[in-house]
Design a protein that fits this description.
about 350 residues, alpha/beta, six-stranded mixed β-sheet, five-stranded mixed beta barrel, 7 helices
Length: about 350
């Protein structure tokens, strides 16, 4: 097996180790693929506090020590090209890793009750923040009725982002996605349950790669067909990282993503007369003028302000957790040195 087929590009590994890519994460156990096939691995004890790099997630490239008789040992997370994270939904926690080292983020909503403009703005913000190219996929275009209003709304929200309306059932619009599914490319699929991720993957790959569950007729929702994030290699050499349906995505370290997702708003902010303009009643406020002249909708402005406020709160928490992590790392290093020097009993 050639690891370069999985997107590995001359990343430097440690001595006596192999490069691998993580294809799925099961709590503290990692499924990996490397030049000799598939294996399972765990983290080297204490490595996380000893310049190990970020905690690995699906799609990460790592260096590891191979063990043919049991779980191998991951020694380091290699540098990432792109990275997708959200605020951990568990109370009191910080960042939750979603995926790493991908080229495109497919933001999927269906042309039924699932479509939600505010959620689309949130997905776009985090997709831009990841460093990859967002792509909006509107599924189930075969449903009866006109979908022009939803498609036009998606185009207005997703500034500078391709928007594709497709049907996995009839095949309509699927050819337009071929340009993304190229050998060596990795695509992250994001969308709530019942949006049609599994059906789309199966239709594009020409085989049943993923299980498909039916959805409820009353609200268009469905059960999650994926229980954990996993990287799947398709027959044509493209890879996908599927994620459990994530209806809520908390912002985390998303300031740059907001600027990209709301470029239409940012351009007015930069034209205000005063650099510290609060955009309330100050003279020469370009934002107020744009809203009054119909160039910027009040709803769009409110969405921007809401996400900015949420991002600021998350950033403050991120700085606190980062400082706490650095303190723990320093304590761990000192403790290790004291044990080595015989000052602490092992």
């Amino acid at each position: 097996m050639n690891i370069s087929n999985y997107g590995f590009e001359n990343l430097k590994t440690e001595d006596n180790t192999f490069p691998a890519r993580i294809t799925s994460v099961h709590r503290n156990r990692f499924e990996i693929v490397f030049e000799y096939g598939n294996a399972y691995a765990q983290l080297k004890q204490g490595a996380f506090y000893n310049d190990f790099g970020p905690y690995p997630t699906t799609g990460d490239f790592v260096s590891f020590i191979y063990n043919p008789y049991g779980d191998s040992l991951i020694t380091k997370t290699l540098p990432r090209r792109t990275y997708f994270a959200r605020k951990d939904p568990s109370p009191g926690r910080g960042e939750q890793a979603v995926a790493a080292n991908f080229d495109y983020v497919f933001i999927m909503q269906s042309l039924n009750q699932d479509f939600n403009k505010n959620r689309l703005e949130r997905y776009l913000t985090l997709a831009w923040q990841s460093g990859a190219q967002p792509v909006v996929i509107l599924t189930k275009s075969d449903l009866p009725g006109s979908h022009n209003e939803i498609i036009n709304t998606a185009n207005r929200v997703a500034i500078g982002v391709p928007v594709h309306a497709v049907s996995s059932k009839t095949g309509a619009g699927l050819e337009s996605l071929n340009t993304y599914f190229m050998p060596g490319k990795t695509i992250v699929f994001l969308g709530s349950s019942g949006v049609g991720k599994s059906s789309l993957v199966n239709a594009l790959s020409g085989e049943e790669v993923m299980l498909v569950n039916s959805i409820r007729d009353n609200d268009g929702k469905g059960r999650h067909t994926t229980t954990h994030r996993q990287l799947i290699m398709l027959n044509n050499g493209a890879m996908i990282i599927d994620t459990p349906g994530m209806r809520e995505l908390g912002l985390w370290n998303a300031a740059d993503g907001i600027e990209d997702a709301f470029a239409d708003v940012e351009k007015y902010i930069n034209n205000c007369r005063f650099s510290d303009c609060r955009h309330q009643n100050e003279p020469g406020c370009a934002v107020i003028a744009a809203i009054e002249n119909g160039l910027l909708s009040a709803e769009r402005w409110e969405s921007y302000c809401s996400l900015k406020q949420e991002a600021k709160f998350a950033d403050d928490k991120a700085e606190f957790l980062k400082a706490k992590w650095e303190r723990n790392k320093t304590i761990a290093k000192k403790s290790k040195k004291m044990k080595k020097d015989g000052l602490i009993r092992k």
